User: Fold this.
Amino acid sequence: MKVVFPGTKDAKVSMQGCGCACHPSIGEISSNKPKVQIG
Amino acid sequence: MYKVIRSKNDNHYVYDSISNNFFQLSPSDISLLEKTEGGTDSLRKFGNEFWDEIYGDVFPLNLQNFPVVTTEDESPEILVLELTQQCNFRCEYCIYSGAYIFERQHNETTMSMEIIDKVISSFFVNSVDPPKYVSFYGGEPLLCFDLIKYIVTTLHNLGFDPIYSMTTNGTLMNEAIIEFIIEHKFNVSVSYDGINHDKYRKTLAGQVTSDKIINMLKIIMDKDYSFFRDNMRISLTLSPPYGLYENAVFINSHPILSLLQVGVSSVNSENNTFMDKFNLKEEEEKLKAEFCLLADEYIDPLFNDKPFHKALFNKHLQRVEMREMSLQDKAYPPGNCDIGNHRLFISATGEKFICERVGNFGILGHINNEIKQIGQYNEVLKEYKRIVEGTCENCILVRLCDYCISAFKNGDKLCDNKKMKDLCKNQHEWYDLIFYIFLSKKELS
Assistant:
């Protein structure tokens, strides 16, 4: 059984078009900001 | 998890969520699989060489649970401002029409200058990472064009020029507004409902609005064609009688609308009285059949540039095309929106929400709070964790699902397990169709 139609190596989580139809798909999430554990 | 999928040419494939791969099945491969879907472990039947090459020693899976974390600062990439809760339209299906038990109704509340100045000071002047995008929302934001002008001009004078966007019904556009949005390169989404437009989208006085909107689009097209093509789009809300196929033919052949990017969404069928008057079962069966018809058409490369077909399928086809090629390491799907970090909605009264779609769920504080309300972020994140934990990790769509919090909203809280199951069933049916289109298109290319 062989792999066909591969995706994108090292792809980031796709957030474009996050479901809010009334706004154009703009930007990607900024994932490099410092985060704090809160729960 | 794995699932067998058939293409239009009747070739068979397996999609596997742990490796995020598609495998082509030969007729002898098909006979090795007892079921059309199941655990990835069943794919060991294809031999050690295959297994070791793809999975190595992946089991037992060591999956990361949804992390309840947030950034230290409150610096969203997209700031959505509800300038007014009033509108010059009274669309029957609108969530602010009074037909929705958990939503506000149109009223005269408008964002005050005090709140606007606070937004500018908190999110721009005193922020180390100001928003890249500002979106004007309502009600109808063009009822408050003076406020839009004030915000854009003030930010520009302070050295900030974010990318602006706006959702509008388009009927209040005049020459001055058109010149302003062209000058400031606004992205403008105009609500236009195709064949049903004049049935539901009427003014406060009950007037139909289709001709006025098409005329407005033509004026902008004639004035600045590149702005029209690059910055304008239409947003079509499907409501019963859906007439999906008829809408596709209408939009794709329209001399003006077919030149624009189209977005399609549908009216929520729950917690409102608008949908009560329709035979929803019949409507939904017809809708599904027409989705399949349009999917079959979209496989044909001749339909690649049809705006309505693209609007229906492209976003999800791209998610499949761009999927990450690595073994599964998370127990939750990629669809959550990095709460408060990606997008933040400021209501006309200054409350902060995850986004404009969550209603009373997902409040994150108030513009007058001097510091980020970590406790409120905690409540929202914990609730989302409750939704995804234990449900998503063994789902075939865990690598692809784009449901965000607004999908799980039920009234003013997040949904229970029963609604979650219905949502997941819909998502599975939808991705069956997306996989079918994806594989069939790939075979042709």
Notes: Chain B touches chain A through 74 residues (CB under 8 Å). The mean pLDDT of chain B is 93. Chain B has 14 helices and 16 strands. Residues 214 and 308 of chain B are 17 Å apart (CA to CA).
